[in-house]
Amino acid sequence: MERYSVSVRDLAVGYDGKPVLRNVSFDIGQGEIVTLIGPNGGGKSTLLRSIVRQLETLAGTVEINGRLLNSISARDLARQTAVVLTDRIRPEMTTCREIAAMGRYPYTGPIGILSKEDEMQVDAALKAVEMSDYAQRDFNAVSDGQRQRVLIARAICQQPKIIVLDEPTSFLDIRHKLELLSLLRRMAREQGITILMSLHEIDLAQKISDKILCVENGRPVRFGTPEELFTEDGIRSLYELENGCYDPLFGAVELPGAQGRPQVFVLSSGGTGIPVYRKLAGNGIPFAAGILYTNDLDCHLAHRLACEVVTEEAFCPISDPACARAMALIREVPRVIDAGVKIGPCNSRIRDLILEAKTLGKYGEA
Questions:
Q1: What is the pLDDT of residue 1?
Q2: Are 14 and 58 in contact (CB under 8 A)?
Q3: pLDDT tens per residue, range 147-159
Q4: Fewest CB within 10 A of the end CB: N or C in the chain?
């Protein structure tokens, strides 16, 4: 029988005896990265707190490395599981290094004196999160993002088998978000540490996770691979999206395009149209796009943002109907934008469209 780092069966969690989530079951293997996603208030933090025994479970079981959670002593649990939650601790007169060093307490004696090995672990953890230069700074005197990195260092100091993080990228700029997630991935891949966390940034969750747990108050939890769960319909349902959509190809949320008669015709290929489409959509300008091959990145996004898309089958010469429709649109709209279309043997008829736009005085480059 396979042994899991975390095994949850028929779990119900909540407050004052009232469940927020129920019938939750999933397994996490050693070294896997599992991310909880879902709307605010859906129960992500409640589930994480229950799994690490900060909240009492209402029903069901949790096993950590093959042992029932309630049978593990607090000291052993601290050696196996490190926790970084969203609570903002505000200790008085405590340095960043002292905060990080708290992660060594499960290994020290009753008076908490650090050995030379403990000190080395603290130094290594602060270096890993690029906080060595701030080690002696007051924890309350550094930025929110720097405090978050110190708390990650504290978790690393515990040398855990499992790290549980609730919104670890909160307060971090994009550089430090990527550095933190890269660090977690290295820990998972190289050290076999299991990572269980929640994220608001679903694009990052899609890219870093081995498994995804979709959490929403009052609805069954869904568990699976990013490929299984990051679908347009799945994300729309989870977050109840009404304006815009989630695009699984780009791993991004797209705002809705402007509706109405097109005011611009965009010529593009190979991704050159993407920034133009988004700018037009952002400015509320309806546009048409073409002639795009069905396997082109531009074609994928154009179908989401444009009023009309003139397409052609991949690797085929542009047909008479496609050329005629594009020509008609160019004559109808006030402006034609060439976003950098690349012309080759198959799409050579694009030259006719450009010539027509120039003749009509509508042609311009992005």
A1: 47
A2: yes
A3: 888 998 999 999 8
A4: N
CATH T-level topology, domain 6-247: Rossmann fold (3.40.50)
Q: What is the pLDDT of residue 363?
A: 96
Tokens of 47: 């589930």
CA 178, CA 159: separation in Å to the nearest integer? Answer: 22
Q: What is 255-365's CATH number, 3.60.60, 2.30.30, 3.40.960, 3.40.50?
A: 3.40.50
Q: Please indicate whether the domains covering 6-247 and 255-365 agree at the CATH topology level.
A: yes
Q: Helix 116-128 crosses helix 144-157 at what angle (to 10 degrees)?
A: 140
* Residue-range domain boundaries for the chain: 6-247, 255-365
pLDDT digits (tens, 9 = 90+) for 90-137: 677 899 999 999 999 888 877 778 899 999 999 999 998 889 999 999
pTM of the model: 0.82
